[in-house]
């Protein structure tokens, strides 16, 4: 499996606190069957100012430790970019931390606030798409607007956005409502990717296999392969060719 949304870089957001925790998270992911990880620290303007140089240097330090420990995993980095008008200036200066290139598109992990979908979100998404950047909208099943009105996802789907569901939503960690919405979206074929969104060992661990088994039971092996391997592989493969 490939995990393309997790907060493993030590000390730069609300994920791993230090290198010890970062390595423990990676070891746990590997034990669970993960072979590739794209770390995605929050880039949340004013809260976590993780611009590319910050992410790069933190990533290099982590990669060095992983090499030293001989952990069998491939690593790359992007970011979970919070919806904000600041995105436009980063786009203009080529400073957006993106996933890779696939089908002439680049992909970007985009986070809405959990409380709602802000006015203007569609405009920003259209702007990104015009620049050949496809937003991968993080955990729609945990957004309160969408929990109330699930069909509000549709305009974004029609525009061409991709969507990523959190593995532990599928297994019920975020409650029955999030679980039901995640499964309903998957059933409607609206979701392209499942990822862990791991933050720590106990409450938000980097585990995918249990969710994968559930998806296989409910929707079959082909759907599980797409959500947990093929789609995450395709949109991040170019990051691993560097
Ligand atoms: Fe996240």
Structure write-up:
- With 242 residues, the protein is of the alpha/beta class.
- It has helices spanning 19-31, 52-68, 86-92, 121-130, 144-148, 154-159, 167-170, 176-187, 209-219, 221-236; strands spanning 2-3, 36-39, 42-43, 74-77, 80-82, 101-102, 105-111, 133-138, 162-166, 193-195.
- The strands form 2 sheets. Strands 3, 5, 6, 7, 8, 9 and 10 form a 7-stranded mixed beta sheet that branches. A 3-stranded parallel beta sheet has the order 1-2-4, with helices on both faces.
- Helix 9 (209-219) packs across helix 10.
- The mean pLDDT is 97.
- Bound molecules: fe (ii) ion.
Provide the residue-averaged pLDDT: 97
Q: What is the CATH superfamily classification?
A: Metal-dependent hydrolases
Low-confidence stretches: none
Strand content range: 15-25%
**Helical/strand content category:** alpha/beta
Q: What Rg is obtained from the alpha carbons, in whole angstroms?
A: 17 Å
Q: What is the CATH architecture descriptor?
A: Alpha-Beta Barrel
Query: Whole-Å distance between the termini?
Result: 21 Å
